[in-house]
């Protein structure tokens, strides 16, 4: 069969691109090596898919070119996607901070995309692995089920995170093969591993903080793990974290800690008892013992007292590494935006070759931004092919 375009990868971006192009009368083939499409959608958002965010701006994305995502995001907005969700009568709700989740199951989003594919006459081949792409007059896509040819190829293979559900670095291989630059990749939206084991016994404890890294601050929860910290605040800062640079935690966003401690300046209580008024006791004890020998406030000199306040307002924590691609929600970095048109996602060097979704060096915050990038970049390419 002849196709106008072949989409490599049946994830969020690939399916949405195929739907958009199919609706315009293009004959599109999607090739997916898993036995079913959209596996990441299915497991996303704890099974409820945080499919977009009401407040999407370019500031919610990390990329070497922070302006690159603007055109695609304006061309297909969260409201556009939400309208489609509504049309398919999928119940959803705003959980927090503009994050829209399915009420029932993320499978409904995959069903919706498959219904739209059907309407747009998109052909889908699952259980079919793409092994190579070459360029003659057209593009030849070599797969485990033979060679397919089309004038346009859309690389929508995603990034390296969650290899157990089919993530591969194949998209980057194609980019390199055709001479496109890759911005160094690393796992992100991921738990961080602390230097030392001092806080390991606190695994499971959760606290609301303001976590900051590289001038970006997030007021959300942290959760201690056996190896470090997770929770939304830590996942958010993981997008900005650099090895060797500590992350700062304002531990008491709700409490005027100077006032509280000054009121207790002559107290004979051990520090952990005072801190347990604002923290879970286990954290208060570990923090007081490790950072201040659990001294009562009356025994602290002014320098120590000031240091305590400073630490509570900006606890500097060093992390040695991340929990890696096996646990990361996304891959930071990817195909350099300098190589692509921001309007169409087409390669500037290789006409007819497009890159969309996570494989591109555009990474969103936690909270539905990454799916919105998948829908918007897919839509941009789907309208261009
Ligand atoms: C656990 C988890 C939860 C998440 N939750 C959310 C959330 O709630 N909200 C949000 O916005 N983002 C979330 N994300 C991130 C989001 O899932 C991704 O950003 C998004 O799926 C990227 O879409 P994509 O189409 O670019 O890539 P993918 O969805 O990864 O799709 C790529 C597809 O290509 C296929 N593929 C790879 N190599 C080949 C090959 N050689 N041949 C054929 N097929 C191939 C893969 O099997 C895959 O199906 C989550 C991620 C994870 C891991």
Features:
12 helices; 385 residues; binds flavin-adenine dinucleotide; FAD/NAD(P)-binding domain; alpha+beta; seven-stranded mixed sheet; 21 strands; Elongation Factor Tu (Ef-tu), domain 3; 2 domains; seven-stranded antiparallel sheet
Q: Kindly state the mean pLDDT as a whole number? A: 97
- Rg is 24 Å
CATH homologous group name of the largest domain: FAD/NAD(P)-binding domain
The CATH C-level name of the largest domain is Alpha Beta
Short overview:
The protein is α+β, with helices and mostly antiparallel strands and 385 residues long. It has twelve helices and 21 strands.
Secondary structure topology:
Layout (H helix, E strand, L loop, with lengths): L2 E6 L3 H12 L4 E4 L7 H5 L6 E4 L7 E2 L7 H6 L2 H10 L4 E3 L4 E4 L4 H13 L3 E3 L4 E6 L3 E5 L2 E10 L14 H8 L4 E7 L3 E3 L11 E8 L2 E9 L3 E3 L1 H7 L8 E4 L6 H7 L7 H5 L5 H12 L9 H12 L1 E3 L1 E4 L7 E6 L17 E3 L7 E2 L4 H16 L1
Parallel strand pairs: 1-2, 1-10, 2-7, 10-20
Antiparallel strand pairs: 3-6, 4-21, 5-6, 8-9, 9-10, 11-19, 12-15, 12-18, 13-14, 13-16, 14-15, 16-17
Helix pairs in contact: 1-5, 1-12
The structure holds flavin-adenine dinucleotide.
